[in-house]
Amino acid sequence: MVEALMYLTASRPDIVHATCYCARYQAKPTEKHLTAVKRIFRYLKDTIHMGLWYPKDTDFELTAFSDSDHAGCLDSRKSTFGGIQFLCGDKLVSWSSKKQDCTSMSSIEA
């Protein structure tokens, strides 16, 4: 089920964080993780009208944001870093999220 969610993240960036969190526990999932995956599928069912839309524009303005948490993984106490880029203010073009090998004290350190 997580594989199907990973496929959907290409057009539904709103589920990336929750899907990646569930993917961390694929080797030894528990009932709690299955409940989380089912919750994501219910969310998708209720928001089926949402997705990415790229109309043709002449403007080109790139905006980027990044952030990091502090020891957000409850198991390893490692931090997760993420970034997101938009064209013309509201057209999402790329995003990323990665669990780091260390614990960051701030976004700048990440």
List the helices and strands and how they pair.
Layout: H1 2-8, H2 16-23, H3 31-46, E1 62-68, E2 80-87, E3 91-99
Antiparallel strand pairs: 1-2, 2-3
Helix pairs in contact: 1-2
What would your notes on this structure say?
The chain is α+β, with helices and mostly antiparallel strands. It has two domains: 1-52, no CATH class; 54-110, no CATH class. Helices cover 28% and strands 22% of the residues. It contains three helices and three strands, in the order H-H-H-E-E-E. The chain has a three-stranded antiparallel beta sheet, covered by helices on one side. Helix 1 packs antiparallel against helix 2. It starts with a helix and ends in an 11-residue tail after the last strand.
